[in-house]
Amino acid sequence: MKATGIFLLLSLALCCYQGIAEANRAAGRGREPSCDNFNLSRGCTRDFEPICGTDDVLYSNECLLCLHNRQRGASVRIKHRGMCQNPNARSTN
Ligand SMILES: *[C@@H]1O[C@H](CO)[C@@H](O)[C@H](O)[C@H]1NC(C)=O
């Protein structure tokens, strides 16, 4: 009885999570940054490999985008590599 309830809840969560992921893709919300590649406790290099975030802010590199997400509890994704076409006034750091 209880197990069934948990199973139902789980499949519900799974369904909706996939639904949201689908919606994000459909809306062209960019791709997930590979934050596992960085040890954010150690900080980021200042390498300039510009990335335009889905918030239209230019990040000097992917690591800084990950750091921003962690520090602000944000979930900015990668819109595309390179400069933003319509940059947001807000600065990166
Ligand atoms: C990340 O860096 C910190 C500080 O240098 C270190 O203590 C920690 O073990 C590192 N974590 C990983 C997963 O490498």
Automatic annotation (TrEMBL):
InterPro entries on file: Kazal_dom, Kazal_dom_sf
Molecular function via GO: serine-type endopeptidase inhibitor activity
Position of the signal peptide: 1-23
UniProt entry keywords in alphabetical sequence: Disulfide bond, Protease inhibitor, Secreted, Serine protease inhibitor, Signal
PANTHER family: OVOINHIBITOR-RELATED (PTHR21312:SF28), SERINE PROTEASE INHIBITOR (PTHR21312)
Keyword Disulfide bond attributed: yes
Subcellular location: Secreted
Ranges where the Kazal-like domain occurs: 29-86
Record GO cellular component, one term: extracellular region
Name of the protein this chain belongs to: Pancreatic secretory trypsin inhibitor-like
Keyword Transmembrane helix attached: no
Predominant location: secreted
